[in-house]
Design brief:
Layout (H helix, E strand, L loop, with lengths): L1 E3 L16 E9 L5 H11 L8 E3 L9 E10 L2 E10 L9 H8 L9 E10 L2 H4 L11 H4 L8 E4 L9 H13 L4 E3 L12 H19 L4 E3 L6 H13 L4 E5 H4 L1 H14 L2 E5 L3 H5 L5 E2 L1 H11 L3 E3 L13 H8 L10 E5 L7 H8 L4 E3 L2 H4 L5 H17 L3 H7 L1 H10 L6
Parallel strand pairs: 6-12, 7-8, 7-15, 8-9, 10-11, 11-13, 13-14, 14-15
Antiparallel strand pairs: 1-3, 2-5, 2-6, 4-5
Helix pairs in contact: 5-6, 5-15, 7-9, 11-12, 13-15, 15-16, 15-17, 16-17
The structure holds 2-carboxyarabinitol-1,5-diphosphate and magnesium ion.
């Protein structure tokens, strides 16, 4: 038997093993702690230690995490430390994201020993990363579902976000698709309410979709929001497949990662792609000094198997977001052969912002505009034409002004919104 205390979880000479999960935290020690004592408590409480000295079998310490790096750091205008913690693979149950998060983002976020703590980044080892399904399609949706591997794919959410009838919703889809957009998207809070029931919305929207495909000769699809309680959500996934939809959309943060993993399994059976909306992410990532970063949320989403996820607008839109470009790079980088994820830019976008967005984020993205399409002075169809023209011009390296000369709908959008970020 050996006695273990907090101090046993600190070893600044430790070099993480290849099979370790390595996490980076921003930490502000409480007044009665220093950087080392706070770091050792982070490693201990997030693996298998606690506040009292324990007498344990030697083998138990093989599961103990090690705080192995401490350096001064800032978060916004605050000062603290960047603490590196290495977690042995055996601590985790492969393929079980809630268990992993209960370790690395669990009790430690509420410890009195730290005033602030934020999980900034993770380096996922191969055994643990490949214990997850990962995405089925990722960025290949651009060519596998659409003929769009030379440009960003486009999407629009009918606005107002809820309250439209099923007919109105489907009609807006028709106008947007025939205006040149690839995807109709449900809003994050539209599920199966009486004014626009789920199954009616599904069948009518796909009927309008089929009309639009007939007329345009282009593939079109629908990001159908299946978000609901456990089994109900899986039944909605089955319904989407039965009706010939290629996608489902899930509010991944509010549903929880266990539910996302279940949806991933079910979508494998049907060959459906998963669009991840991140509503509630800001509760975790808005403050730079506390919580869980969007970078880590995106990593979790990739491992759990989503094909597309909102990652922000590189600060061009109406919502605060962090590190869109860095997160997008991670989502499209190699990860032991797991598929990548298509980043979706959304939130306050309109055609005038597209050139700068593509400059910052490239073309291997999706672009969603709701207000930026339906707020067009001449309505949804013209708004869609304007967005399509702006996206094509940006992808081809043509100026938006020149594109506006060819597409009056775009000229109208530029007159209305210019290249301003909405507030
Ligand atoms: O409800 C909205 O605000 C949106 O539908 C955008 O509408 P607009 O196009 O009309 O702005 C999206 O939910 C946000 O983009 C989500 O934020 P994020 O993409 O940052 O996760
Ligand atoms: Mg929305």
């Amino acid at each position: 038997m050996v006695g273990i205390t907090y101090e046993d979880f600190l070893d600044l000479s430790y070099d993480p093993a290849d099979s370790d999960l390595v996490c980076e935290f921003y930490v502000e020690p409480a007044a009665d702690q220093d950087a080392e004592s706070a770091a050792s408590r982070v490693a201990s409480e997030s693996s298998n230690g606690t506040w009292a000295e324990l007498q344990v079998d030697g083998g138990v310490t093989d599961l103990s995490a090690t705080a192995c790096g401490i350096e001064a750091a800032t978060a916004g205008d605050r000062e603290g430390y960047r603490v590196t913690v290495a977690y042995p693979d055996a601590l985790f149950e492969g393929g079980n994201m809630p268990q992993i998060l209960s370790c690395i983002a669990g009790n430690i976020l509420g410890m009195k020993a730290v005033d602030r703590i934020r999980l900034l980044d993770c380096t996922w080892p191969e055994p643990l990363a490949t214990s997850f399904a990962g995405p089925q399609f990722g960025t290949s949706v651009r060519s596998e579902i659409f003929d769009a591997d030379d440009r960003p794919i486009t999407a629009t959410v009918p606005k107002p976000k809820v309250g439209l009838s099923t007919d109105q919703h489907a009609q807006i889809g028709y106008e947007a698709w025939t205006g040149g957009l690839d995807l109709l998207k449900d809003d994050e809070n539209l599920t199966d309410q009486a004014f626009n029931p789920f199954e009616d919305r599904l069948t009518e929207s796909l009927a309008q979709r089929d009309r639009a495909v007939e007329e345009t000769g282009e593939p079109k699809s629908y990001l159908l929001n299946v978000t609901a309680g456990g089994t109900e959500m899986l039944e909605r996934v089955d319904m989407a497949a039965e009706h010939g939809c290629e996608y489902v959309m899930v509010d991944v943060v509010t549903c929880g990662w266990a539910a996302v993993q279940q949806v991933r399994e079910r979508c494998e059976r049907h060959g459906l792609a998963i669009h991840a909306h991140r509503a509630m992410h800001a509760a975790f990532d808005r403050l730079p000094s506390h919580g869980v970063s969007m970078r880590v949320i995106a990593q979790i989403a990739r491992l759990c198997g989503v094909d597309q996820i909102h990652t922000g607008t590189a600060d061009l839109g109406k919502l605060a977001n962090e590190d869109t470009v860095g997160i997008n790079e991670w989502l499209t980088s190699d990860l032991y052969g797991l598929d990548d994820v298509l980043p979706m830019a959304s939130g306050g976008l309109h055609p005038g912002l597209v050139p700068e967005l593509v400059d910052r984020c490239g073309t291997n993205i999706g672009i969603q505009a709701g207000g930026g399409v339906h707020g067009h002075p001449d309505g949804t169809h013209e708004g869609a034409k304007a967005l399509r023209a702006a996206v094509e011009a940006a992808a081809e390296g043509r100026s938006i002004e020149a594109a506006a000369d060819d597409e009056p709908a775009l000229a109208t959008a530029l007159d209305k919104w210019g290249t301003e970020t909405p507030r």
